[in-house]
Amino acid sequence: MSDENIIGTSTTAAVPPKTCNDLFSQGDILFWQCEYEKAKEYFEQILNQPSITLIHSARCYNSLGAVNAELKNYDEALNNYHKHLAILEKLETPETRKSDIAKCHISIGKIYSLKEDYVGAIDWYQQALSVLSTINSSSDLISNIHHDLANLYTKTKQFDLAEKHFTTALEMDRQQLEEDHPKFGQTYANMGVMYYCQEDYKQALKYFFEAQRTWQKFLPASHVYIDSMEKTIRKVESKLGMYIQGVPKVMIT
Question: What is the DSSP letter of 15?
């Protein structure tokens, strides 16, 4: 496990679509069953229908972008999302449409991040923030953007900017979430990574303990997050010369 990837970056749990009989439900079901090639084929068939509407085309390109991302066809995914964006920008732009445009920017940013083009990813996330600043948008969505930007700035070793965006994300989440909401566990874990990358092991350990404390309140002891964090804490303690086999750990405050 590399020093800059002690623990995974933040993820957003996806919710499977409700069972329905609309044009896209079969493709959505295939996607959530991880049948990505079949889902891709299904959405492409819809896209090739001569009577398809502009709105449905946008939906297909968005779904194809997600499918190709899972298949690691990143250039193809970018092409899909750019076509999705181009259609959205042609349509009328009430607040809901602008929100969709911002989300498309985020999707493009995520693909650049997967391609390890972190500077490109940052640019698209910043564009998403710019769009959302013009409308009344979800605080949760904006805090997620700040969180992802913080992780990206950690990757580019721009630690002052990473800390700034983590702080903004925490401030927003504390206004709308309970103190021990599981989302804070991931934020603390990623802040720990930020400090670890700066070789500030004492601060890193502080935030890893905070993540562990938060996760232990709602996850079973056998959960992969708990196990991964325990290993991470041991690794950081060894950096500080604190970890001695068989001796209880000392909590840092």
Answer: -
